[in-house]
Amino acid sequence: MPLVEIRAVDKAFQRDSERVEIFNALNLDIEEGSFTALMGPSGSGKSTLLNLVAGLDRPTSGSVRVAGAEVSAMSPNQLAPWRARHIGFVFQQLNLLPVLTAWQNVELPLLLTNLSRKERDERIRLALGVVGLEDRMKHFPRQLSGGQEQRVAIARAIVADPTLVLLDEPTGQLDAKSSQDVLALLRRLNDEFRKTIIMVTHDAHAAASARTVLHLEKGQLIERQGAMA
Amino acid sequence: MKIPLIYNLRSVMQRPTSTAFTAIGIGLVVAVFIGMLALANGFRAALTRTGSDRNALVLRRGADSELSSGLDREAVSILAASPHVAAGPDGRPLFSAESYLLIPLSRRGADTNTVANVVVRGVAAAAWQVRQNLVITEGQAPVPGRNEVCVGRTMALKFPNTDVGQALRFGGRDWAVVCHFTAGGSSFESEVWGDAEQFQPVFRRQGFSSASFRLADPAAFEEAERALEGDQRLQVDVYREAAFYAEQSEVLGRILEILAFLITSIMAVGAIFGAVNTMYAAVAARAPEIAVLLTLGFHPRSVLLSFLVESALIALVGGVLGILLVLPVNGMVTSTTNWASFSEIAFSFRITPALLLSGVVFAAVMGTLGGFFPAWRAARRPVVQALR
Questions:
Q1: Domains of chain B: which residue ranges?
Q2: Is the CB of A156 inside 8 Å of chain B's CB atoms?
Q3: Taking 80 as the threshold, does the pLDDT of residue A52 lie above it?
Q4: Of A45, A179, B126, B218, which sits 20 to 30 A from A153 (CA to CA)?
Q5: Which residue of B14, B295, B300 is in closest CB contact with A56?
Q6: pLDDT class of A224 with cuts at 50, 70, 90
Q7: What's the distance, Cα to Cα, between the start and end of chain B in Å?
Q8: Which tens digit of pLDDT belongs to each residue from B296-347?
Q9: Do B387 and B315 meet the contact criterion of CB atoms below 8 Å apart?
Q10: What pLDDT score was predicted for residue A124?
């Protein structure tokens, strides 16, 4: 059974007097343990699709199921704890709260769990270790490079061991070296820790790190298999 | 609250200027709020402290103040002989028939056009024992039969020619100031006391205004009240002295309190708008952060609470600022006309811990009100919109 099931999803919104249609009867399955890159031109609906999967946005019609739960039917009150349990999200930029240290940023999702202080500390240390930032724990975001900030954001996305990690243009603002580091980290999370990852990207090189690349064009999905480098 | 407080604390410190201005605005309102209530508080305290529960005050039936009361000598003799009057160590009744007179006097340092009505109280020698909280701080008590007066502490501060050794002129005569006295911060301290018998001819009085006496049994006040009010020869009303003076403070005390609430309410509206403005700016600037928190799974309720707490924190800083601003006025002496007696009464601003606490609570309420709508907006904003 797929981890993510998208069935007959329509998504449209009103721009002034014009109705803009993003998806029309979209269907998609994402398997557990997969690493999927979503590509497509601007306005093709990549980020919207990611938001639908995370329950940040609702389809106009159709169904979005994640880990057996009907996300599209949940109320905002149900969505908050569901997201805390199942989704790790990384944005393109402005990921971290600037007034909190790397450690405190990574701790945020754990504040929504019942873990003890000691257990939380262990998890944070482990997550920051996985992204290679054990020595930057007490640093504020302004004291980190763009690549380091993204790695802290990834540490925060995985620290609560979510079902699904979603990334929206994670390398969009990074230089080549930092991009390589982040992509290598994502591959490791998928290979070694079996994390299911969906990543939106413009960058073909970044997409090449994924196992599956999906192209979105005019609300339709075109799949290419075996893109793994 | 799941969003850590440190997030709010550090966010507030990120924008020191707007935070400081909001806190100062709230602080000023709190200072005025506490200051005005301290004024009302001090006024009430001055009059409440004037009387004693152990004393009774007798006025002509139907009179509502000492000014409008009158007792003839026969009534005074009957009252003094009452078994409800306690006796002093010398066996004499602790009873003082008193004349309540108003004289116009110029204030110290002011031009002669600004005059105030000052109470001149003609008392019997026993008055100094009947009022137990009286302390002569300088000089000796007036000797009966002489043109001597004793001046209350706050009266001496505000009016000229009231130092010991000086002569105070009123009623067409000079009166030697022979002492100063305190009376536990009560309104007696705004009065001039002298021998009632010396004042009678000067002010062309035949009788007295009132009588005060120590109750033989303070617990049996009702019995004394019944007996004296029931005596057809007297035609008097009997009050517990403390209750009578407390009632005298009612009208002006209430007006001062209403004024305090009215003025600070108007100011508070301005301060609340300041908080609203600051918090709206904070919410707008931190839209992506709010989106991140909501995406991580924090409940909109937690976001609402977090911003409310932040606003309340700024207000609390303002509250503390307000307290620091207003504390120096504590104990400062001011004066006004007591509407119950048309006389000048001096009293001190009286800031109590309860007043300080209400100032802090008032600040928190202003902050919470000011922060509510911005916080509500933050919590209700769709994540997708905030991320753009």
A1: 5-48+250-387, 62-234
A2: yes
A3: yes
A4: A45
A5: B295
A6: low
A7: 27
A8: 888 888 888 888 888 888 889 999 999 999 999 888 877 777 666 677 777 7
A9: no
A10: 95
Nearest by CB: B4 against A80, A109, A111: A111
CATH code for position A217: 3.40.50.300
Residue B6 is predicted with a pLDDT of: 87
Residue B263's pLDDT is what?
83
* Closest residue by Cα to residue B195 from B176, B172, B182: B176
* pTM of the shown model: 0.70
Which residues 6+ apart lie within 8 Å of A212 measured at CB?
A: A34, A35, A36, A37, A223, A224, A225, A226, A227
What average pLDDT does the segment B136-165 reach? 91
CB B35 within 8 A of CB B261: no
| Partner-chain contact A91 B383, CB within 8 Å | no
Residues of B in contact with A100 (CB under 8 A): 4, 6-7, 10
Any CB–CB contact under 8 A between A89 and chain B?
Answer: yes
For position A9, what pLDDT does the model report? Answer: 92
Domain assignment of residue A6, yes or no: no
User: Is B300 an interface residue toward A (CB < 8 Å)?
Assistant: yes
How much is the average pLDDT of B70-82?
92
Number of structural domains (chain A) is 1
* ipTM here: 0.87
Cβ separation B10–A54 shorter than 8 A: no
Residue A228, pLDDT score: 45
Distance CA B3, CA B310 (A): 11
Contact call for A80 and B11, based on CB within 8 A = no
pLDDT of residue B388: 67
Cα A163 to Cα A197: distance, rounded to the nearest angstrom: 9
**Which structural domain range is residue A79 located in?**
32-58+73-225
What average pLDDT does the segment B366-378 reach?
86
Q: What are the tens digits of pLDDT across the range A161-201?
A: 899 999 998 888 788 888 888 898 889 889 988 899 999 99
Please answer yes or no on whether A112 and B289 come within 8 Å at the CB atom.
Answer: no
How many angstroms separate the CA of residue A113 from the nearest CA in chain B? 10
Residues of A (55-84) whose Cβ lies below 8 Å from B: 56-57, 76-77, 80-84
Dihedral, B293, B298, B304, B306 alpha carbons, nearest 10 = -70
Q: Are A121 and A159 in contact (CB under 8 A)?
A: no
Q: Which residues in chain A are closer than 8 Å to B11, comparing Cβ atoms?
A: 99
